[in-house]
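W.,

You were right to be curious about this one. When I first looked at the sequence I had no strong expectations either way, so I just let the prediction run and decided to look at it fresh. Below is the sequence, 115 residues in total, followed by the output.
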Amino acid sequence: SELSLHVSSVLAVVVFGLFFAKEGKYALSREVHHIGHAVWAQIGHISNTIIFGISGLIFYHEAFNDDDIYKDATNWGLLILNFVMLHVVRFIVILVMYPLTSKMGYGLTWKECAI
């Protein structure tokens, strides 16, 4: 699309996705639609696994590739702080979004929030 029509390829894919979501899904049978959904879910899972694996290797290389014990202790402290902050932020998001999520859909309870 960029060479022949001089438009953005990214926007062309977005427009195609919007069109297919509205009109194109009726062109496929239920079986083909289900198989396509399963294939894209698997591709998404594999991509997510690869991205997090590579980022973990890069983080390990950058954080623990030095023999300096103080740097190692500092990095472990930052990892623990990161873990704690992750849960604090999750708690705040659940607390702020609870009034909305408890009123829509199936209704979220505090027991489900704790999980």
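Here's what jumped out at me. DSSP finds four helices and no strands in the chain. And, maybe more interesting for your project: The chain has a mean pLDDT of 83.

Coffee later to discuss?

I.
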